[in-house]
Amino acid sequence: MVSIVNAGFPFFLLMLLTRNIPMEEFGELVIYETILVILIPVIHFSLAGMVVEYFKLEKLQFQKYVSNIIILIAPVFLIVQVLFFIFGAGLAEVLDLDINWLLLIPIYVLLNSFIQIPVSIAQCEGNIIKYGIFLLGPNFSILIITYILLVNFDFGYEAKLYAIGVSNICFASLSLLFLAKK
Q1: Kind and range of the H or E run holding 115
Q2: What predicted TM-score, i.e. pTM, was given to this entire model?
């Protein structure tokens, strides 16, 4: 049920964006989001096996496993970020994108990786409340923040990019607090 509700947020967001931003801006937003989606498996590479390991390891071993995942994500993120710094200007010029938003994309993916860890843990534990908070919360907040910035402040396509940033910062912080208590 939670996954079905979660799938509805992008649908509502799509309707909101297509009615309120010009086609050119929508195309630019799609390019940013495509780059973000391409980077997710690169930076999240070690998160996929977490659910399996949850059932194999003792609690202390699993805590070390999660810590190691975070440690492994850091250098991959740094490599990706350095590549974006080196090649970002050329990519931004070719795709006619704002270099500042382009440089934020790897940071957004890093923050999202911190959010995915408690999602996996809550799913394994069968804790529907925490699972719902960390799965639905970011997408719901992106929808609400985008709506506010787009409709009330006329931010254009950047409304969603700001919303992703704010949502990821808030929920990554909550995720790190959640993990610290684990």
Answers
A1: helix 99-125
A2: 0.93
